[in-house]
């Protein structure tokens, strides 16, 4: 190939990305799923005796039928059969399917909730939880449902005027991904009906409940703060989310948890948000159930967490930090996210060699910094568990006890990462360093959002790293 052809190909790749490789895995995945669905579905079969075609009904697994019939058989009739089938763990649509759990969740959602604050329920389904919420908070309730078969039943429950919205709220990340290609306003239009507060320091704007099955929705929330768009424009909010122990571990882990759980996304999440484990619910009280086909992908600790998730899921309260700007001004949000993304590609990435790639010979400043060289003068901190039931406050100047040329990024807590970042961007050479150009190249939302699609596969296939082999189950949480 001549030089013009090589240069032209490199230029196109730098501007438009690498379409052949970037979308090959996603295209192959879609084709495989279509092939499976074609083989699995037999919508019509010929009846030789009657001369007519009949539709095969969707069958509900026997264990699902037996379980709900033993508790409350009437619940089965509230759901279409396709939602009672077992599905992949990556689904984003879950429904509360038990009346006692609906009452428990309603108590948690309305606890300390002012009467004038909007309460949002995502995927109410047949309205088991909605019925309980109407008893406790009937004047300021809104529901987002994407399944058309539930619309009439929900409206018949006596919802406030204009409280029903037909939308896939958990799929906001997907709408934002599509908007990044054509400049659309799909995500912004879905959020238009929610109260907007521009001042970050104001009180929380609304409280929302949803059941999430993947990290994509949480990644979208982080991206909205980083890029200061869409969900960010709503101001601060409260979310009480039901999630699996595995998903909770991805956002609440500490550096003791190991490579597969304590990742760059964990650092950014714990910097942006406060979280608290406020309760548990039985996993079987949510439909659809899992069929467990992805269990082989998850190794060691992931397998243990997936087994725990078969019994109960966690109710987690998530609120953006009110004092975030005291530690990370808005102009530095994108730089911080880029700093974490680039340096936490590997937890074993060494700090000084990585930073000297951007600013040569800067390592001596860290090694000779008295904040790092006098560890005995620092107050010893209590050891943290491998998972934080409740988040800890950020600290402005949280230095590692000792910095050497062998110190790795995986040894830092979120506050220590933030301290290192603020030190890095205040060096005089920073604005002329290649890091600024590298951060600018990551600004287009297409790149950040495209990673959401493959994030879970990357986590499942991550290389092994020494980590604790046992995890104590979180008990007695109310």
Distance between the termini: 66 Å
Discrete helix count: 22
Overall mean pLDDT stands at 79
Our estimate of the beta-strand percent is 5-15%
Approximate helicity band = 40-55%
Major sheet summary line: 7 strands, mixed
| Strand line-up in the sheet with most strands | 6-5-4-7-8-11-9
Radius of gyration: 25 Å
User: Which residues form runs of ≥5 with pLDDT under 50?
Assistant: 1-28, 33-56, 445-478
Principal-axis shape: elongated
Number of strands: 11
SS-based structural class? alpha/beta
Subcellular location: Mitochondrion
GO molecular function: mitochondrial transcription factor activity; RNA binding; rRNA (adenine-N6,N6-)-dimethyltransferase activity
GO cellular component, one term: mitochondrial matrix
Keywords: Methyltransferase, Mitochondrion, RNA-binding, rRNA processing, S-adenosyl-L-methionine, Transcription, Transcription regulation, Transferase, Transit peptide
Describe the structure.
With 478 residues, the protein is α/β, with parallel strands linked by helices. The chain is 42% helix and 12% strand. The protein is built from 22 helices and eleven strands. Helix 13 packs across helix 20 (414-425) and helix 16 crosses helix 21 (434-441). The radius of gyration is 25 Å and the shape is elongated. The model is unreliable at 1-28, 33-56 and 445-478 (pLDDT under 50).
